[in-house]
Amino acid sequence: MNTTPKTPSLEDIREAHQRIQPFIHKTPILTSSAIDAMAGCQIFFKCENFQKVGAFKARGAANAVMKLSPEQLAKGVATHSSGNHAAALARAATIAGIKSYIVMPSNAPEIKKKAVRSYGGEIIECEPNLIARETTLNAVVEKTGATFIPPYDAMDVIEGQATCALEMWEESIAFDTIMAPVGGGGLLAGTALTTHYISPDTKIIAGEPEGADDAFRSFQAKKLIPMTVPKTIADGLLTSLGKINFDIILEYVDDILTVNDEEIIAAMRLVYERMKIIIEPSCAVPLAALLKNKERFAGQKVGIILSGGNVDLAKLPFK
Q1: What is the mean pLDDT of residues 76-80?
Q2: What is the distance between the alpha carbons of residues 285 and 15, in angstroms, rounded to a whole number?
């Protein structure tokens, strides 16, 4: 597992894109004239909610697994994740013919646990906090010899997530801004890297929930401030920002905007009503941030990565 801080080059990202082809969909870009009219700009939604396992995480997990040595493959892989990375890693491991051990907090959404099991992952439950996740994971790794594939804080994972923006740029749209949600920071770091190489004048702006705003606070302070008790409906963004990710974000991201849960739910509902597609709350965060700060994006071409669609339909936050 490559966790040394060698930042992937554009060539590395292109190679990763080739490497993971058998594991992923090339997801479509959708538009909505109704949402454009409300937002006062042109929005291009990159639909990673249609990705394998229902989220962009399929990219980073596949890339990391495909780069393991034969010795590492023999002992399998392990991670801790509240959902999408867990499913993505379980699926990539099963396709590669190896075992996966997934540490999940006991309060992770049932739909995400079901997905991990269906992809062949072995779930080990723990208390819902980062210390418990890391302690349980360390015990699993010690017992099995499995290679830890971090959910976001590793260059191989970031390199895989960077392929999402690579596909966006292949569409020949002159984006003024690209927006992504930020939790652990893998998608944001990868998006920022790819865009820096291809179109350095394009702004990269993240959306983050107010109840889990460690990336916002860290970005402002220029030093990593861990999130201790996150509380937000955006369950995919409850993790603390990764160190490797933060260094890339600090260098290549232009701004991080925060939104509250009501704004997230309103943006989520808007996508359901106008676009007729399923997104999870975390996915709605960048659109919520754009709608809250419309004047910043007036007249622009804005790419928004819809990060995932794994939502428990029995618990939709609107009627």
Answers
A1: 96
A2: 30
Give the alpha-carbon dihedral of 215, 220, 223, 229, to 10 degrees. Answer: -40
> What are 291-295's contacts with CB under 8 Å, separation 24+?
291/38, 291/39, 291/263, 291/266, 291/267, 292/257, 292/259, 292/263, 293/257, 294/39, 294/40, 294/41
pLDDT in tens, 198-242: 999 999 999 999 999 999 999 999 999 988 889 999 988 988 899
Tell me which of 218, 240, 282, 307 is the catalytic residue: 307
CA–CA distance, 159 with 137 (Å, rounded to integer): 23
CB 159 within 8 A of CB 189: no
Fold observed for domain 10-55+154-315: Rossmann fold (3.40.50)
Say if residues 246 and 185 touch (Cβ distance below 8 Å): yes
pTM over 0.90: yes
User: Which tens digits make up the pLDDT trace of 264-289?
Assistant: 999 999 999 999 999 999 999 999 99
Residue 204 in contact with residue 230, Cβ under 8 Å? no
Q: Taking a C-beta distance cutoff of 8 angstroms, is the pair 317, 282 a contact?
A: no
Helix, strand, coil share (%) of the chain residues, nearest 5: 50, 15, 35
Cβ atoms < 10 Å from Cβ of 181: 32
CATH architecture of 58-148: 3-Layer(aba) Sandwich (3.40)
Q: Fold identical between 10-55+154-315 and 58-148?
A: yes
Question: Residue 232, SS3?
Answer: coil
Alpha-carbon span 274 to 127, nearest angstrom: 38
Residue of 46, 52, 57, 112 marked catalytic: 57
CB 84 within 8 A of CB 54: yes
Report domain extents, the chain: 10-55+154-315, 58-148
57 catalytic residue (yes or no) = yes
Main-chain phi, psi angles of 281, to 5 degrees: -55, -40
